[in-house]
Design brief:
This protein folds into 2 domains: about 180 residues, Rossmann fold (3-Layer(aba) Sandwich); about 240 residues, TIM Barrel, CATH 3.20.20.70. About 35% of the residues lie in helices and about 15% in strands. The protein is built from 15 helices and 16 strands. α8 packs parallel to α9.
Length: about 450
């Protein structure tokens, strides 16, 4: 594999709305770092680059923590969405900027393979456009598609994407096997899939103007929440050594001057904090002066007084909690991840540690199959009464999850035939108990 030239591409987002909540193609960057260890030369084109030199004069607003808006250009809606009365946009750099980067790469070296990732299932049009352009500008170069869409909508991807090869789930081992077959060679470095600390750090060094780094301390989740695809995307739950996690944070901080970090874990605090306590104490001990964010949400059940105080001292800027619903029966049915009492307790602990109302956010799922407006309103009121900020997270039906069959029954859209209708912006499981107008009114009344 030594000397082979690999192009990594993070595609556009095509949607009604999109916001950069510390969005990086972490899986793709891990694969890149593994290929680099095997002697490959890497090239990276990020269609979501918010500091692209070709886009001068169109710089989107960014926040000090690194999150913010993407570049946005209104584009025609795909035919299945033609009747939706909302603007549809391409989020990311212009096609001209993408082609400019692609041409430059092609001039510099002969590319041996193009690896393209994918995110939400209903963002596939941006993926398809990237594949189409790569095929046109780099004829004969094998195109490999992986990521979330490729895994969850595998049949759709194989039939329509135009990619030469599809990699599903965690792709580090499978991509090595595929490239070994294509190039008639063997890798000299293969990570131990059960040992996440055997993986090299993801290749964030390929990103210019590196404002934040995404950290993954574990893969998988011990829960099987019926609305979540975590267990479909990862093989099983495993966790890194907490001291080695801090080693990585310190590396990015000292060598690349990165101060903002977003944890990509589905269960950062799982186990009532034994792992987290060791990690947080080590961060504090090293006096790194970093800021940390948890966009995926934390398990309220795991937050006690000690954890809350350590998070505050370590530099966690905002704390996002997964509440999902206030309905006791639905809490149990969807995964028993937390209870209302546990949410209240965790928020109280965070307040005592010094967090204010605006620093504590609780995600509330909206649009679950057969969920009514009163359930959402009650959850909003509970979060507010505790002194936290409610955040509505619109439900997206995900193939083969626990709620998928109910979603198929209730959705007015053919969500099983067209992934575009899995878009949470459509409120795809709306029904008479929660219409789209009810949802909009609920957001107005609640001030969210």
């Amino acid at each position: 594999m030594k000397g082979k030239n690999v192009l990594l591409i993070n595609p556009w987002i095509y949607d009604f709305a999109a916001y950069d909540m510390w969005a990086r193609p972490l899986g793709l960057l891990y694969i890149g770092s593994i290929l680099k260890k095997n002697g490959c030369n890497l090239y990276f084109i990020d269609c979501l680059n918010t500091s692209h030199p070709y886009m001068k004069g169109k710089k989107p607003k960014r926040k000090p923590g690194g999150d913010g808006k993407f570049y946005r250009e209104i584009i025609p809606k795909p035919d299945p969405l033609r009747d939706i009365p909302r603007y549809y946009s391409r989020y990311g750099i212009t096609p001209e900027a993408f082609c400019h980067d692609l041409s430059k790469v092609a001039r510099d070296r002969r590319i041996d393979v193009a690896l393209i990732t994918s995110m939400m299932t209903y963002w596939y049009p941006g993926v398809f456009d990237v594949i189409k352009i790569v095929k046109q500008m780099l004829p004969g170069v094998p195109v490999v598609l992986g990521g979330i869409y490729a895994t969850l909508c595998n049949t759709h991807a194989r039939k329509f994407s135009g990619a030469d090869y599809i990699i599903t789930h965690e792709g580090e081992i499978d991509i090595l096997k595929l490239l070994a077959k294509l190039w008639h060679t063997k890798p000299v470095f293969v990570p131990e899939i059960a040992d996440l600390d055997s993986y090299p750090y993801p290749c964030f060094d390929l990103i210019p103007d590196l404002r934040y780094v995404c950290i993954q301390t574990s893969r998988g989740c011990p829960f099987r929440c019926t609305y979540c695809a975590s267990h479909l995307l990862t093989r099983y739950m495993r966790r890194r050594d907490p001291i080695k996690v801090v080693d990585e944070i310190e590396c990015w901080n000292k060598k690349f001057y990165v101060k903002n970090f977003a944890f990509y874990d589905d269960s950062l605090l799982y186990g009532h904090g034994d792992f987290a306590i060791k990690m947080l104490k080590e961060i504090i001990k090293r006096e790194l002066s970093c800021k940390f964010y948890c966009p995926n949400g934390l398990h309220a059940r795991a937050i006690n007084g000690e954890i809350a105080s350590l998070m505050k001292d370590a530099g966690f800027e905002r704390v996002c909690l997964g509440f999902e619903t206030s309905d006791t029966k639905r809490q149990v049915e969807t995964g028993a991840k937390t209870t209302t009492k546990e949410l209240i307790n965790s928020i109280n602990c965070l307040h005592r540690a010094g967090y204010g109302t605006e620093d504590i956010r609780a995600y509330i799922l909206c649009g679950l199959p057969y969920q009514d407006a009163d359930d959402i309103k009650k959850a909003i009121d509970i979060v507010r009464s505790c002194g936290a900020r409610p955040v509505i997270a619109e439900y997206s039906p995900i193939p083969n999850t626990g709620l998928w069959k109910d979603a198929l029954k209730i959705s007015p859209y053919p969500i099983d035939k067209e992934p575009l209708f899995q878009n949470n912006s459509l409120l795809p499981c709306q029904w008479e108990g929660l219409t789209y107008d009810m949802y909009k009114q609920l957001k107005i009344e609640s001030g969210i």
